[in-house]
Design goal:
The chain is an alpha/beta fold. It has 13 helices and nine strands. Bound molecules: nicotinamide-adenine-dinucleotide and zinc ion.
């Protein structure tokens, strides 16, 4: 058996208001005054000077506000890279992503494409990236995706929604400041938090499970249950714990894989533009056959927080659309293998996938 040698985020800062230390982290790594830091910032902060005024811009540094209304696209990465290359003679000193999974993934992808030729779509897949990325920093402002620790950046391209999975993808530095997650709307807090919960269930119930993944997955599962079912926790404690749950959930899937909810959710996202967190919830709600205990817990948390999921989104789809979603879902072979075993092709049919989609 050949074991995989995965990189991890080498440096992490944790603590409330640790965001104020970003300037001192960046200072020694600035190459020169002409080599800027590029801050990609979720545009939800555009009207929040209590955050933007603390972004440590100097010299030629640039803040670029990014809308998270749509998930990141390969074309968007290419456009940002072209814009940065045109605007500056020097390669940036670094790229800093401040936001949720959408902005963190964009920051990772832009840092990779600054040093690798061609389009982001050329690198969707596994280990296609040749050159080290520009120094990149992730500062999550909503907890759950694990994008802050992962070895991938998930992008939608012309042909597929697939990550750029590579040893060069993980951040060089992460700043975990739970106070940054203040102001997240309740539904979004639930959907992105459930992304973490679903990572745990899919990892813990999967065929690829090993002690490494299990130890992180169990901790993240426990933290999620505490955050979403306990009345004891105050707001700060909830923010702290969900941020660490996201980290551990991401670590858990690093050495295993996600499963059926993610495979089907990628189909929903590709065909209908349904975003990751809510899409996962919409799918997971119907997966009791595959993850009975996890789905029971999920429904309990959903009811407790009075979350109403969108429904009927697949009722009027054409056959072509349904086939396209199914194709995207089934193309994620490692996810199915993790969920159902090496003989997964004998255990799931296109018809069953259509039936599941029709329930949503
Ligand atoms: P998101 O980044 O799309 O943000 C969701 C919403 O929350 C947006 O409207 C955003 O503006 C808002 N928001 C973020 N922080 C806020 C704050 N502090 N206050 C108020 N509003 C705030 O959501 P997400 O669920 O974190 O990320 C989803 C994306 O992450 C998808 O594109 C998915 O593919 C990707 N993802 C990546 C990985 C990975 O390992 N790379 C893993 C899972 C998901
Ligand atoms: Zn996920």
């Amino acid at each position: 058996m050949k074991f995989r040698n995965f990189p991890m985020v080498p440096r992490v800062l944790f603590g409330r208001n640790s965001f104020d230390q970003v300037g001192e982290l960046l200072m020694p790594l600035r190459r020169n005054s002409e080599a800027p830091y590029i801050f990609l910032v979720d545009d939800v902060f555009q009207d929040r000077p209590e955050v933007t005024s603390r972004i440590p811009v100097m010299f030629e540094d640039r803040i670029i506000f990014i809308s998270a209304d749509e998930e990141p696209k390969t074309a968007q990465v290419d456009a940002l890279v072209a814009m940065i290359k045109t605007a500056f003679d020097e390669m940036p000193s670094g790229v800093i992503g401040i936001g949720g999974g959408t902005v963190m993934d964009l920051a990772k992808a832009v840092s990779l494409l600054l040093t690798n030729p061609g389009s982001a779509q050329d690198y969707q897949g596994w280990d296609l990236v040749k050159n080290k990325a520009v120094y990149h920093v992730g500062i999550p402002s909503i907890s759950g995706t694990g994008a802050e620790v992962s070895r991938t950046t998930v992008l939608t391209g012309p042909e597929k929604k697939l990550g750029i999975n590579s040893d060069f993808t993980p951040f060089d530095q992460v700043v975990l400041d739970p106070a940054m997650t203040g102001g997240v709307p309740k539904d979004q807090w639930f959907f992105t938090g459930m992304d973490c919960f679903i990572h745990c269930v899919e990892s813990l119930e999967g065929y690829f499970l090993n002690t490494f993944s299990q130890s992180y997955g169990e901790k993240a599962y426990e933290l999620c249950c505490e955050v979403f079912t306990s009345d004891e926790l105050g707001l700060e404690e909830r923010q702290n714990k969900l941020m660490m749950a996201s980290w551990h959930g991401g670590m858990s899937i690093a050495y295993s894989q996600v499963g059926i909810a993610h495979a089907l959710s990628y189909g929903l996202s590709y065909e209908l533009g349904i975003r990751h967190g809510v899409g996962n919830c919409m799918v997971f709600d119907h997966l009791e056959k595959y993850y009975p205990k996890g789905v029971r817990k999920f429904k309990e948390m959903k009811d407790r927080h009075e979350i109403v999921l969108p429904s009927g989104v697949c009722s009027d789809l054409t056959t072509e659309q349904m086939d396209s979603m199914t194709r995207v879902a089934l193309s994620l072979e490692p996810l199915w293998e993790n969920a159902l075993g090496a003989d997964w092709k004998q255990k799931i049919t296109e018809k069953e996938i259509h039936e599941l989609y029709q329930k949503m």
